[in-house]
Amino acid sequence: MSSLERYSTNRVRRLIGSINSIRFKDDTGEVEYFGQQVVMLRRDAFTLIRDELTRVAGGAGQVILGIAGHTVGKEEGRALLAKAKAPGVRLPQSLPIFIRLAVEETNMGYGKVKIEDFSTESGTVNISLLNSFEVDPYRHTLKPTCAFTLGYLKGIFSELVGRDFEGKEIECKSKGDAGCKFRLAVRPESNAGTSPK
Ligand SMILES: [Zn+2]
After folding, report:
1. Residue 171's beta-bridge partner residues?
2. Close Cβ partners of 145 (under 8 Å, ≥ 6 residues apart)
3. What's the pLDDT band for 7 if we cut at 50, 70, 90?
4. For domain 3-17+42-186, which architecture applies?
């Protein structure tokens, strides 16, 4: 890594660290994360909601969770970009580093995210996830279970890169794999609609 890259990485890391903070507004009973309103939800409450959704709606349950994750990912990407612009980080130059750190170091409690490889030319990304909050360690399934996270990753990448991403979960701990792995790619017909400025 060149000294310029290292400088850039440290700056972006500091920037993300500075916005990666949680704020309890006890007087109004609100919690803010990244300046956005959030609620604290136990992992098992999420599992309960998902199980009921699947019971009632079948496969549509996964679709609904995917849409919810996608919306959250897009909002998160938008918030990160907005914050990044403020302190004058020259985004076009440091965009790949920014994207990597933004995705890896934004701890939403979903699990430990790592970008294995990310090619801006081909528009493909391989992501691994340890300790996914959508994996129930006591239950094995035949299909991947991390629909919300998949949607989230597609959403955050779409927003940060400025192109629509599609993809799937190719390995999942719920199926007995070592961890969860996602492969995303730019949707072929997608053009730069909301490219980051
Ligand atoms: Zn999974």
Report:
1. 181
2. 132, 134, 135, 136, 172, 174
3. low
4. 2-Layer Sandwich (3.30)
